[in-house]
Amino acid sequence: MTEFAVSTAPADVVRRQYLASAAGDLDALRVTLAPDVEWTEMAGFPLAGTYRTPEGVTAHVMEQLGKEWEGWTAHDDTYVVDGENVVVLARYTAANKATGKAIDVRVAHHFVVRG
């Protein structure tokens, strides 16, 4: 196992989340989330709300995105780290399964990694 795979450095934990999500590996994604995780999708986003537990996050966010979007991917471009805070400038790309319309949008994610 590599040092990156077990690193608890906040940026490494977040990077493993993006890699697991891109690979469609929800088990690996859940491993990166704390049992008491609080994952908030912003107001105005179709899945707006706060989700708790690793299983809750993957069931109510990742699995739902997979049902409605083909090839949903969050591309992590830039990391800004300050202690336990990690801000990632990223892009979402996907195509809506119902309409076929493609998206390519810039987003910013804020993570707090404790422990």
**β-sheet strand percentage:** 35-45%
What is the chain-wise order of helices and strands? HHHEEHEEE
Helix content percent band: 25-40%
Count of separate structural domains: 1
Question: Would you state the CATH class?
Answer: Alpha Beta
Shape: globular
Distance between the termini: 20 Å
What is the residue-mean pLDDT, rounded to a whole number?
A: 95
Q: Could you walk me through the main structural features you see in this protein, from its secondary elements to its overall organization?
A:
The protein is α+β, with helices and mostly antiparallel strands and 115 residues long. The chain has a single domain, classed as Nuclear Transport Factor 2, Chain: A, CATH 3.10.450. It is built from four helices and five strands, in the order H-H-H-E-E-H-E-E-E. It has a three-stranded antiparallel β-sheet. A two-stranded antiparallel sheet has the order 1-2. The chain is globular, with a radius of gyration of 14 Å. It comes from Streptomyces sp. SID12501.
Jot down its keywords.
3-stranded antiparallel beta sheet; 115 residues; DUF4440 domain-containing protein; NTF2-like_dom_sf; SnoaL-like
Short overview:
The chain has 115 residues and is of the alpha+beta class. Helices cover 34% and strands 39% of the residues.
What's the helix and strand layout?
Layout: H1 3-6, H2 10-23, H3 26-31, E1 38-41, E2 49-52, H4 54-68, E3 69-82, E4 85-96, E5 102-112
Antiparallel strand pairs: 1-2, 3-4, 4-5
Domain SnoaL-like: 14-114
Organism: Streptomyces sp. SID12501
InterPro entries: NTF2-like_dom_sf (IPR032710), SnoaL-like (IPR037401)
